[in-house]
Amino acid sequence: MQLSRDALLRAYRQMKVIREFEERLHTEIMTGEIAGFTHLYCGQEAVAVGVCEHLDSVDKIISTHRGHGHCIAKGCDVPTMMKEIWGSSEGTCKGKGGSMHIADLDHGMLGANGIVGGGAPIAVGAAMAAKIDGKGKVSIAFSGDGACNQGTTFEAMNMAVVTKAPCIFVFENNHYSEHTGVDYAVGTNLDIASRAEAFGMKVWRGNGVDFFSVHETMREVLEYVRAGNGPAAVEFDTERFFGHFEGDPQRYRGEGELDRIRDERDCLKIFREKVTQAKLLEGADLDAVDADVMSLIEASVEGARAAPRPTAEDVLTDVYISY
């Protein structure tokens, strides 16, 4: 399926926003202005964007502790997200969520989740609601190769199959669960998708560093699930450029590994090469996007620094919701 020029520019912009958002956090965390743990998504941008470009605000997603990319790809406001990570009362969750717990229900983002494997059951619940609603909407659970070993994920996949819930389990295999390599921690010959297949659902596999592979794979998956065939799972092979958390020395990496993957498996480089070689876009078009994104990130950081912080009185607000 050939994407339009506008669609290509939008996809590149979304990936570039995620990349520069994360790279800037990597820099700013060193200043000590950002409190708490931060887990960066750099390297995996093609998965978030390739998946979410097919969705609208009514389709639901739930993320992981490495969730900034999913939030941005689903349409969350970047300056407001930056304020949230800085702990501002003007943030997405009024400064109470921070990096690992950003949620924006207006955009169908049910939240990032600090519990490994904790999102899959929530996604199944949202999918069951979508099935009852009957409007062809779906719910997507983003997980990593660490979550694929969790019992909550197994239970969620089984329930999705039993109830024929329109839930899609997206496994981003970046080869490391925290600090443990996938070749040690995951059986089934390193293949996560086959685990989902064992529960009775159809599975797909795609190249997670190639936006076009992700986008086309998700088109097929969504057609299948929206048609009422029940849940599905897809595994994308991808890369994580930074450590498990900011400050992780990554001594578990092989010599030259990070240089190699940044050189050979950078999804933005691959996208740029493909579209310019095919004469779908010019390098100048992409350069203009780069400049616009850098301005957005700079303005977002300055806005976050200046934004107000929650007061002591705010601690008891938004604790309960009255229906």
| Helix percentage | 40-55%
Major sheet: order of its strands? Answer: 1-2-3-7-6
> The CATH topology, please?
Rossmann fold
User: What is the CATH class designation?
Assistant: Alpha Beta
- Please describe the biggest sheet, giving its number of strands, its sense, and whether it closes into a barrel: 5 strands, parallel
Beta-strand portion reads 5-15%
CATH-scheme architecture:
3-Layer(aba) Sandwich
Beta-strand segment tally:
7
Shape: globular
Low-confidence stretches: none
Q: How does this structure look, described?
A:
By secondary structure, the protein is of the alpha/beta class. The protein has one domain: Thiamin diphosphate (ThDP)-binding fold, Pyr/PP domains (Rossmann fold), CATH 3.40.50.970. 44% of the residues lie in helices and 10% in strands. The chain has twelve helices and seven strands. It has a five-stranded parallel beta sheet, with helices on both faces. Helix 6 links the parallel strand 2 and strand 3. Helix 1 runs antiparallel to helix 11, helix 1 packs across helix 12 and helix 2 runs parallel beside helix 9. The longest helix has 24 residues. The radius of gyration is 19 Å and the shape is globular. The mean pLDDT is 93.
SSE blueprint and pairings:
Layout: H1 5-28, H2 45-52, E1 60-62, H3 68-73, H4 78-85, H5 119-133, E2 139-144, H6 151-163, E3 167-173, E4 176-177, E5 180-181, H7 182-185, H8 193-198, E6 202-207, H9 211-226, E7 232-237, H10 257-264, H11 267-277, H12 283-306
Parallel strand pairs: 1-2, 2-3, 3-7, 6-7
Antiparallel strand pairs: 4-5
Helix pairs in contact: 1-2, 1-11, 1-12, 2-9, 4-12, 5-6
